[in-house]
Amino acid sequence: MHRFAALYAELDRTASTLAKREAIASYLRDAPAGDAAWAVYVLGGGKLRRLATSTELRQALAASTGYADWLIDESYEQVGDLAETIALMLPEGDGSLADEPLQTWMEQQLPALAKLESADRVAQLQAWWRALRPAQVFLLNKLITGSLRVGVSHRLVVQSIAQWSGQPTDLIAHRMSGQWKPTADALTALTHAAGDDEHLADRPYPFFLASPLEHEVETLGDMAEWMAEWKWDGIRAQLMRRDGHVGLWSRGEERLDGRFPEIELAVATLKSDGVIDGEILAWDAEENLPRPFTALQKRIGKLKPGAKLLTSAPVCFMAYDLLEYNGSDLRERPLRERRDMLAALIEGLDQALMLSPPVVADSWSALTVERQQSRERQTEGLMLKRLDSPYRVGRKRGDWWKWKVDPYTLDAVLLYAQPGHGRRSGLFTDYTFGVWDGDTLVPVAKAYSGLDDKEIGQLDRWIRAHTTDRFGPVRAVEATHVFELAFEAVQLSSRHKSGVATRFPRILRWRTDKGIADADKLDDLRRLASG
Amino acid sequence: MFDPLLQPRPEGLYCPAGDFFIDPMLPVVQAVVTHAHGDHARSGSGRYQVASAGIGLMRERLVQDALIDAHDYGETFRMGEVEVSLHPAGHVLGSAQVRMAYGGRVVVVSGDYKRDPDPTCVPFESVPCDVFVTESTFGLPVYRWPPMTQVIDDLLAWWDDCAQKQIPAVLFCYALGKAQRILAELALRTEHTVHLHGAMLRLVESYREAGVRMVPTEPASESARGRDFAGELILAPPSAAGSPWMKRFSKASTGFASGWMQIRGNRRRRGYDRGFVVSDHADWPGLIRSVEDSRASRIYVTHGDGDTLIRHLRDLGHDAQSLRVLRGTDNESGG
Question: Which of A206, B27, B207, B308 has minimal Cβ neighbours within 10 Å of its Cβ?
Answer without folding.
Answer: B27
